[in-house]
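Batch queue: ligand-bound targets. Current item pairs a single chain with C2E. No template structures supplied; prediction is de novo from sequence plus SMILES. Inputs echoed for audit trail.
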Amino acid sequence: MVAIAIYARVQSVADERDHLRDYANWTLERAQLSVDAADETFKQLATEQWNSCSDAHIDRMRELVVNSRFIDGLGYLVDGRIACASWGRSTGTVSIGAASSLLSDGTSLHLDARSQMIGPTAMVALSRGSYVIFVHRDRLVDVLTEDAMTLGLTTREGALIAIKSGLPGSMQEGRVPPSSPNDIRATVQDADFEAFGIADTAQIQQRLMKHLWLLAPLAALTSAILIALIIWVSRQRMSPRSELQLGLKRNEFIAVYQPIIELASGRCIGAEALARWHRPGGAAISPDVFIPLAEDNNLIEQLTERIIRVSAGELGPLLRGNKDLHISINLSSADMASGHFLRVLQEVLPQAGIAPAQIWLEATERSFIDVERARTILDQARARGHPVAIDDFGTGYSNLSLLEALPLDTLKIDKSFVAAIGQDASTSVVVAHIISMANNLGLAIVAEGVETREQESYLVHAQARYAQGWLYARPMSAEKFTSFLQDNARTDAQTLTPAPGTV
Ligand SMILES: Nc1nc2c(ncn2[C@@H]2O[C@@H]3COP(=O)(O)O[C@H]4[C@@H](O)[C@H](n5cnc6c(=O)[nH]c(N)nc65)O[C@@H]4COP(=O)(O)O[C@H]3[C@H]2O)c(=O)[nH]1
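Prediction returned. Tokens below.
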């Protein structure tokens, strides 16, 4: 806005200067008309060859003055003195003084011409040969001005010839008004004269307003673009914590659902809710990046709350109509430490008409750092009816002791073990052992990351109960999960194929 205001002022001054230059040019033209008229008159009289102050000569001079719009008096010189003139033989006290400058056509310009007939300072004189022509000073700057401005005419050497309006007293001083910071001036020249125009800076107010009105929308638009750019840049430069906070505040986190399949029947028994971050601009960030970030910045509990609320909102009707269906919610160590998610579930589930048994809680081994605290929270959860699963089993430490120490219902085998089936003999054996051990402990088993029929057959043979993976479906929106369930209800487990368009 400031730049536009400065630009508007600079432009207004430039416009005013152009305006003054036009007037100065007209002033030059106006002065030149008098010089041309004088030239014509000198030439005319030279051809007529008068040589005395006869009545006919005086009449002729008077006739020439009367017929010219540009000259005011004409005198006949004998020995440098005016012997007679267009107004008669009585010349009174008329003097033309010494020539101030010589014009390009050979005419002498006298700025000190004085005549009692017209006034002491009103005349300038032009002389050539035996004649002198008087011109009223005002006539030389007789340009119709439309605004308050000062117009002036000087010789090429800078001696003031005439000035009009604007600066009273300048004529008495007999010099060009000195420049001041408050005025704008323009000067033009031709072979004989220099003309100038001066305006006060106050004169440009109107122009300034005009420019400002024209430029204001541009300034507003530019400012808006700049502000948007600044917001965009600062967003780019935000700390990860601020970005996550903003993302949570703006509900940029959504949930997608990956179906969990009962291996024996092919029936979909539920889905795991997985967080996705839909950032403005479409940049995708993997949960493997933002989940640890949220955990490190104490924002994971807010994210868990958001996923619970979104899942209950989106899948509430589906869960109300199908009491065998469940949704698994992922928990982190901070959730396990505070138990805040239990309060959220207690508030949300009754409102949505969802039974606690329909919300499974998945906690990774990492979240059981404080085993005693974890046990307390999980006991509370189970007491309310939530089944509890240990997630990514096999990727952490002290697995077996955890299985015994914690109140668990389900064990989820990490996808890295499932991926090794048929590839790495030793790991495949571990999978079989985990499944058998879990069965012995009375835990239900969900194998994660099942991608091939070969893995599926192995898991069926090893007596895993449930499976989750791209073989059945990728994580999908609530809407697509609803259609998936309808299809699943109609289709035999063996013929299930990945749902199209899943995310
Ligand atoms: N290669 C392969 N991958 C498969 C297959 N089937 C499923 N997956 C991926 O395996 C991950 C399963 O979730 P997870 O083990 O709980 O692992 C999750 C979970 O630990 C965490 N996470 C996701 N959402 C949440 C959340 O809301 N809260 C918490 N605390 N953690 C979350 O981020 C992890 C990664 O999530 P995703 O990227 O969604 O990755 C998901 C899923 O997209 C398959 O057949 N092949």
